[in-house]
Design a protein that fits this description.
heterodimer; A: about 120 residues; 5-stranded parallel β-sheet; B: alpha+beta
């Protein structure tokens, strides 16, 4: 099944590596965006199957993007996975409490990150 | 005899109200004697009853069937005058039956004919009698009318008040010397047909009177009429009245002295005449008198009617009043009964209490004796105890002194609270830490005044638990108490200082007890951990930021290289080359970051040594400008330097590092063709110290820094625009490193900036040239 995944991260390097990792291991269509506000607009128009969302971003951070997606009827059912470098357990608990589908820590493994996403979202294919 | 009422209406009613004429005029209980009675017995009865007559009657049954119920029937009448005549004729009839000496033809009047007093009077005048027996239709004696009874019934007070004695006087009066015999007087009275004679003295002044009644009395005493002189039996003194006196006075005197006549004298005592009942009655026997009587009767009847009305009204009032009084009396009686019952109950209780008190009193006396014994023993014990207490007090005071000294000097907060949570002790360190005076704190509620509002509830609850648990311990066994002591309660909360800021204190709390182990409050000793917590928090934040800053480039390096080395992406493909470029750039970023972190750590830990040596400021400025010459040219920037060449004792590498960091920022944020100005001048470190210093300035024409960010610009990982770190390649640690280096020199670093116009960074370091 040809899935569509939206990656939102202000770090251009992370976008390049993540896109390369997913495209090398799956047949998903990977859309990327380095701006939070633009990412919300793309999610509304493209209606991806999942959003991989960086937490620490300037101006509008990942939690605000997630809330914006939840508040919009067209995007509120799109599962969101946080990508974060926040390693402390307390920080992760706060993020989980927001209601996202899952959290993936940086640095991630390029070979297994797709499997990680599938497991979180319950995707069989 | 019964009184007649039915057939006699009140016609001539002048003296009594409600009485019939019959009842007023007729004497219904006259003196009666049987025909067989002797004259002597009759006279004696007349004398005893002072009756001027005796009616001789025959007692017969009214009906043959009622033989025992006898009623009187008139036989005849014996009067005083009959007796006087007998005496005058000197007849001897002492033992003769009365029936033989009386005249059986006595004028009478039928009871049913008694309708007018005046008619009766006229009748008596016509018959020339003074006594008129009254007979019922069946012949039965009903009573007798006398001149006296008639006068009383006829007398109209008002009328008599208008008439004088002169109108009723009888001037033909028989006089006799006081020395004359009684027989002579009786003969004179009988011959002249008068009822009395006046006794005179030698000067003919009246001194007494002999009446028919006196003759009756004389005969009753059976005295000798020939030898007894008048002076011995006459009535004295004389009851006198004046000629001009009112007949009403004469009438009253007659009633008062119970006489039938009055002697009329002048003011000099000369006899003028007599006033008798008969003469008074005669004055009333005229037409005008009757008219007056009739008018007066009307007035009397009207007054009587008014009186009746008033009496009825008054009666009604009295009845109502009586009814009210009865109700009140009943109510009072009811209350009285209740009160009496209560009193009886109270009295019983009192008696019972008295008994109990007596018993108690005995018991108390016994107890008192025991107490006195015990008191003696206690006095002895007290002496011993006082000695012991004195020793222990001295020891305790020394111990208290040591403790107080410790509490006053220790660098820990010590707070004592009473059971209500009010402060009763605060040590000097607390006052110093919070800025309060002792009077600001003592007797104030700890939780309301010194604990932040959001921490009030749980700290107060904790205090309550401590007090309550302590109370439980007080009741619990000694083992439990010891176990509780072993577990010293700890607690952590913020307190408010006088300035409104907060300090976090880590407390050890203990419940305080009195001698009987009752909890009287708490004592809390606390450590101020505010700074420690701040450091911990900063460490946490630093680790978090460093973690993010390290992991991001590490992810790019790790991911990119792993995709190539694992063969997922071919290294010579476009994507492979792009991944290698990403890995290389992020490796440099990681190196810079690690270097800055290590440098900062070295500076903050004091491990970085300053190699002070003589250096001229121009060496520092020129080295920094040289480093950025290429970069400045690339962006068409001009760097101008104004440096007089100050000598300083400094580590030139460190000052170059500071200046380079500031110049790097200025180049990064300056637009094309802008000018950057570097200047050095001599200044004093501060106005107070007056220490000479070198002041370095780096002024750019960049976009400027918002004023709200100026205070945090020298903190770690602070970048005004997050994108700057991406675009300008900064780590967010450069200014923090500058701050630490200048601080190590004992200098200052600051910035002035205006949005859209540019920023100017300053730092000063002491010259230390001497």
């Amino acid at each position: 099944m040809n899935r569509k995944v939206l990656v939102i991260d202000d770090e251009e390097a992370i976008i390049i590596v993540l896109k390369a990792s997913l495209e090398a291991t799956t047949d998903w269509q990977v859309i990327t965006c380095s701006s939070a506000t633009k990412g919300i607009a793309i999610a509304t128009t493209e209606r991806p199957d999942a959003v991989l969302l960086d937490v620490s971003m300037p101006k509008v951070d990942g939690t605000q993007v997630f809330k914006a997606l939840q508040a919009e009827a067209l995007t509120q059912n799109i599962p969101v996975i946080f990508l974060t470098a926040k390693a402390r357990v307390s920080e992760q608990q706060i993020l989980k409490a927001l209601g996202v589908s899952g959290i993936i820590l940086k640095p991630f493994s390029p070979e297994t990150i797709a499997a990680q996403i599938k497991e979180i979202l319950g995707w069989k294919d | 005899m019964k009184r007649e009422t039915a057939e006699h209406e009140m016609l001539d009613d002048c003296t009594g109200v409600g009485e019939t004429l019959f009842e007023r005029v007729v004497i219904t209980s006259p003196l009666i004697v049987l025909p067989t009675a002797s004259v002597t017995e009759t006279i004696a009865k007349m004398h005893q009853t002072r009756s001027p007559y005796a009616i001789v009657v025959e007692q017969r049954p009214k009906n043959p069937s009622e033989a025992e119920n006898l009623t009187p029937y008139l036989v005849g009448l014996f009067t005083e005058r009959d007796l006087v005549r007998a005496v005058a004729s000197e007849q001897s009839f002492a033992e003769v039956a009365i029936a033989t000496v009386i005249d059986p033809h006595v004028p009478t009047m039928l009871a049913q004919n008694i309708t007018s007093a005046t008619e009766i009077f006229v009748c008596m005048r016509q018959q020339q009698v003074r006594y008129l027996p009254v007979i019922r239709a069946n012949g039965q004696l009903a009573g007798i009318i006398t001149e006296q009874s008639l006068r009383r019934s006829l007398i109209v007070p008002y009328l008599l008040k208008f008439k004088s004695v002169s109108e009723a006087i009888m001037t033909q009066v028989m006089c006799i010397s006081q020395t004359a015999s009684v027989i002579r007087a009786a003969q004179l009275m009988a011959s002249q047909n008068v009822s009395c004679v006046i006794a005179t003295d030698d000067s003919n002044f009246p001194i007494g009177i002999i009446t028919e009644r006196d003759i009756v009395q004389f005969k009753a005493l059976t005295l000798d009429a020939h030898t007894t002189c008048i002076a011995q039996v006459m009535s004295t003194p004389l009851f006198l009245i004046g000629v001009q006196d009112a007949l009403w006075l004469a009438h009253q005197k007659m009633n008062q002295h119970r006489v039938r006549r009055l002697v009329v004298c002048t003011s000099t005592g000369t006899l003028v005449g007599l006033v008798t009942q008969d003469s008074i009655l005669q004055t009333l026997n005229s037409a005008d008198s009757q008219q007056i009587v009739a008018l007066l009767q009307q007035e009397v009847m009207q007054l009587h009617a008014e009186k009746q009305t008033l009496l009825k009204a008054r009666n009604r009032e009295l009845e109502q009043s009586q009814l009210n009084l009865s109700h009140r009396l009943e109510s009072q009686q009811l209350e009285q009964r209740k009160t009496q019952e209560q009193l009886e109950v109270a009295y019983q209780a009192l008696e019972q209490s008295h008994d109990e008190l007596s018993k108690t009193n005995k018991a108390l006396n016994n107890t008192l004796q025991e107490l006195q014994n015990a008191q003696q023993a206690l006095q002895q014990t007290n002496i011993e105890l006082e000695s012991s207490v004195e020793r222990r007090t001295s020891d305790r005071l020394r111990a208290e002194g040591r403790w107080r000294s410790l509490l006053e000097k220790v660098h820990l907060v010590v707070i004592g609270l009473d059971q209500a949570g009010k402060v009763n002790y605060a040590n000097p360190f607390f006052l110093q830490l919070t800025g309060y005076n002792a009077e600001d704190v003592l007797e104030k509620s700890w939780f309301e005044n010194f604990v932040p509002h959001d921490e009030y509830e749980h700290t107060y609850q904790y205090f309550q638990n401590l007090i309550t648990d302590g109370a439980n311990v007080n009741r619990a066994s000694a083992d439990e108490a010891n176990a509780n002591k072993a577990n010293i309660p700890r607690y952590q909360n913020a307190i408010l200082t006088r300035s409104g800021s907060t300090r976090v204190i880590n407390w050890n709390n203990v419940a305080l007890r009195d001698r009987t182990n009752n909890i009287i409050g708490t004592i809390s000793i606390g450590e101020d951990i505010t700074d420690r917590l701040a450091v911990d928090r900063m460490k946490g934040e630093f680790v978090s930021v460093v973690s993010h800053e390290l992991r991001t480039p590490l992810t790019a390096i790790h991911g990119g290289l792993h995709l190539i080395t694992s063969g997922l992406v071919a290294s010579n493909s476009h994507q492979g080359k792009e991944l290698l470029q990403v890995a290389a750039e992020n490796s440099q970023r990681l190196v810079r970051l690690v270097n800055d972190i290590l440098e900062l750590e070295r500076l903050e830990s004091g491990q970085a040594q300053l190699n002070r040596e003589k250096v001229v400021s121009q060496q520092i400025t020129s080295q920094a400008v040289h480093t950025f010459k290429v970069a400045a040219n690339t962006h068409n920037l001009t760097i101008e330097v104004s440096d007089p060449g100050l000598e300083l004792m400094a580590d030139s590498d460190r000052l170059v590092q500071v200046l380079t960091n500031l110049l790097d920022n200025a180049i990064k944020f300056s637009p094309e063709n802008a000018t950057i100005l570097i200047s050095v001048e001599k200044t004093s470190l501060s106005p107070e110290k007056g220490e000479a210093a070198a002041l370095f300035k780096v002024k750019d024409q960049g976009r400027g820094i918002p004023s709200e960010n100026l205070s945090e610009i020298f903190e770690r990982f602070t970048q005004i625009n997050y994108d700057d770190s991406r675009e300008k390649g900064g780590t967010g640690l450069g200014l923090a490193i500058c701050y630490n280096i200048v601080q190590q020199y004992g200098g200052r670093i600051w910035v002035k900036s205006k949005l859209g116009e540019g920023s100017c960074f300053f730092f000063s370091v002491p010259l230390l040239s001497q």
